[in-house]
TrEMBL record:
Organismal lineage: Eukaryota, Fungi, Fungi incertae sedis, Mucoromycota, Glomeromycotina
Residue ranges with Basic and acidic residues bias: 581-612
SUPFAM superfamilies reported in the protein's UniProt record: TPR-like
Species this protein is from: Cetraspora pellucida
Region spans: Disordered: 563-612
Protein name: 16843_t:CDS:1
Length: 690
């Protein structure tokens, strides 16, 4: 056989390498991972200098979420073809995905140099400097780009870019310049609401209170139910209180009078605004508070507002206000029962309240006493309300909640199911009932109930919930399986939740390019700047008790058996398992022949493969890392870290976890118990003695 000349031979190898790499990429998309890697490696062996092969190899690593290796492959590809636009774009996406801002900035510089006429590359470079907090350079990049634009009709994308420019100036700390810039772009901004909000905020920062007051009055006129606008107006008028913590300890009588006068005027202008009616309740005390809350509560009870307690609950941080509310509403109940009025009538000529007022008063009081955990009184009141109007769904839901708080989960579930049956078309009540069933460990009933609102063409309810990324149900079901000690099924559910978050993380790749293309920069930056604990507990349990996966937990007499009896029972169970597996395989084969549509098959429905892990602590550690990264301010994160590090005998890391937990909540009871455990562990290791 004749050999090709050297030039043609090299060309053939290049074509062969590219062909093998592309086949590997196709196989990867067909979910044939091992075959895909093998073909890509063959391609690289055929031509190590092929940037396409290295690029494809990086794409394979990226699809496996092995971002570090993917970066190495992209780097190697760029050494061969440093100006390849596609590789550079993928390279920069991976850098921003890993929040490597400095490298992202370098890639964006390179892309802009290659394509200076592309809008996305100018914005990408500005964002890279912004993320590095180099506001001056970021603003300069945007100014240069804006100078190249031709004046024309205002559009949304141009408007968003200008607002982003203003955001950079604001974050640099130059509020005066930010306000000037905001005024200059007024005619080109499509989002008028955000323009007005930013202007009012800037005026307030600059202490230009008279102008800020007028700005917030205009905003309130646009939306009188916005709490932020009301608070801004308060500050502009010199009434500087904190709405967030409801702290009124330092509130002077003069300040309180100013608040009363302000909201009386606003209430006359905007009589339908609920926020304006609620605000005085936050910042008044004594007789003033009693007057306002009396007026507010009577109006809501007369109208029949189911969310009244939710609105009043924010006041319960003050025991005096809670006592006043209880006194008033108990008075309403007595007067409505005897006279059909909220207060005792002074003469015979009085107007009666509607019969529903008594019903909603009972409803409010039952929630009030439930909040105080006076379950007996709360149940008495809600039962009276149900007797008064037995067809109102909210009453049954509240009774179920009271029973749940009282610890009677079985009765709570039954009552919530009664509520569901009163309105079978309500998805919310159906979901609440399903949740109560899971809390009562009735998993099969919960799946059937939630399945009433899943797609009819779905193979089963759980498959449809997984497709919709409905995590609350899967999380609750996993917790239920933990209580039932069905560890495999619990792990199955929690791994499913982990997959949802993994999918969401992977979807960011599309988000990076989409936001640059659509110029939704402000939303993009909020995303860039912004539950795995139960699965860790299971793996820790498996590490501490490895035999639990083989024990037949349904057999209550197992602990009392002899070793010989246990051996026979295990053998019998294994034979039964093999027989069941064979029957399942035969049934599956028959179903495959009969079925006309593809149905996703789960080869491990009970999570048995997950239970058979040889390194439970290693699996637990995989789930700990994202918790440490995303939830470092939660004490549970560090307490779980301590459990893992202590078992791995990594004592310095265990100590660090304890110190971080101590800085978050030094009074935590579990933390104190863990400190003692750490001290006892230290007795066996002299180098831990302090």
């Amino acid at each position: 056989m004749r050999e090709l000349p050297s030039k043609e031979s090299a060309l053939f190898k290049q074509i062969l390498a590219k062909t093998l790499a592309m086949k590997g990429l196709f196989l990867n998309h067909m979910d044939k991972k091992e075959d895909a890697r093998e073909f890509v490696r063959k391609g690289l062996r055929s031509d190590l200098k092929s940037h396409i092969c290295w690029h494809v190899y990086g794409l394979l690593h990226r699809s496996d979420k092995n971002y570090g290796e993917a970066l190495k492959c992209y780097t190697q590809a760029l050494k061969i073809d440093k100006d390849n636009m596609q590789i550079l774009q993928d390279y920069s996406l991976l850098q921003i995905q890993m929040r490597n801002y400095e490298a992202f900035n370098e890639s964006r510089h390179h892309l802009l140099q290659l394509r200076p006429n592309n809008q996305r590359y100018w914005l990408g470079l500005a964002i890279s400097y912004h993320l590095l907090e180099n506001y001056e350079t970021a603003e300069r990049v945007l100014k240069i780009y804006e100078g190249t634009l031709k004046p024309g009709q205002t559009n949304y994308e141009h408007s968003e870019m200008l607002l982003y420019h203003n955001l950079i100036i604001d974050e640099s700390g130059n509020t005066e310049a930010a306000l000037e810039h905001l005024e200059s772009i007024k005619d080109n901004v499509c989002d008028r609401r955000i323009w007005k909000e930013k202007r009012a905020q800037f005026l307030l920062k600059l202490n230009r209170l008279q102008e800020a007051e007028a700005a917030y009055e205009e905003l309130i006129n646009d939306n009188p139910d916005c709490y932020g606008y009301c608070e801004g107006l308060q500050i502009a008028k010199g009434i500087n209180t904190s709405m967030c913590d409801n702290s009124i300890d330092d509130l002077t009588p003069e300040c309180e009078e100013k608040i009363i006068d302000l909201y009386k005027d606003l209430a006359q202008k905007y009589p339908k605004s609920n926020a304006i009616k609620l605000f005085p309740l936050l910042y008044t005390t004594g007789d003033n508070f009693k007057m306002f809350v009396d007026e507010y509560t009577q109006a809501a009870l007369r109208k029949g507002v189911p969310s009244l307690f939710v609105n009043l609950k924010k006041l319960y941080g003050d025991p005096q206000k809670e006592a006043i509310i209880e006194q008033l509403v108990e008075g309403y109940r007595e007067c409505l029962k005897n006279n059909s009025t909220f207060t005792q009538p002074k003469n015979d000529d009085y107007v009666k309240e509607p019969p529903t007022a008594y019903l909603w008063t009972l409803y409010l009081l039952s929630q009030h006493y439930d909040n105080k955990r006076d379950t007996t009184k709360a149940l008495m009141l809600i039962d009276e309300a149900i007797e008064h109007t037995p067809t109102l769904v909210e009453l049954y839901m509240t009774k179920g909640r009271i029973l749940k708080h009282g610890g009677n989960l079985n009765e709570a579930m039954k009552v919530m199911n009664e509520a569901r049956e009163l309105d079978l078309q309500d998805r919310f009540i159906n979901s609440k009932c399903s949740k109560y069933m899971l809390r009562n460990d009735q998993t099969e009933e919960a799946e059937q109930t939630i399945g009433l609102f899943t797609r009819g063409d779905a193979p089963d309810p759980l498959t449809d919930l997984a497709d919709m990324q409905c995590m609350w149900f899967v999380l609750e079901e996993g917790e239920s399986y933990i209580r039932q000690k069905k560890w495999g099924k619990a792990l199955k559910r929690f791994h499913q939740i982990e997959k949802h978050f993994s999918d969401i993380t992977d979807d960011q790749f599309d988000f990076h390019t989409y936001c640059l293309r659509k110029v939704t920069i402000r939303a993009y930056l909020r995303h860039i700047s912004t539950n795995k604990q139960s699965v860790n507990k299971i793996y820790i349990e498996l590490y501490d008790n490895p035999n639990k996966v083989t024990i037949i937990e349904e057999n209550e007499d197992y602990a009392n058996m002899t070793e010989g009896e246990k051996k026979k029972l295990r053998s019998k169970a294994n034979k039964a398992a093999h027989k069941k597996q064979k029957e399942d395989e035969e049934r599956k084969a028959k179903e495959d022949v009969k079925k006309k549509v593809d149905k996703p098959q789960d080869d491990d429905p009970d999570g048995e493969k997950l239970l058979k892990t040889e390194d439970p602590l290693g699996e637990a550690f995989k789930f700990l890392l994202p918790l440490q990264e995303l939830s470092p301010k939660r004490i549970e994160t560090h307490l779980l870290g301590f459990e893992i590090y202590l078992r791995k005998k990594k004592y310095l890391l265990a100590l660090r976890a304890l110190l971080r937990a101590y800085n978050i909540d030094k009074e935590n009871a579990t933390l104190h118990n863990d400190i003692i455990r750490f001290h006892l562990a230290g007795n066996n290791h002299h180098y831990l003695q302090l």
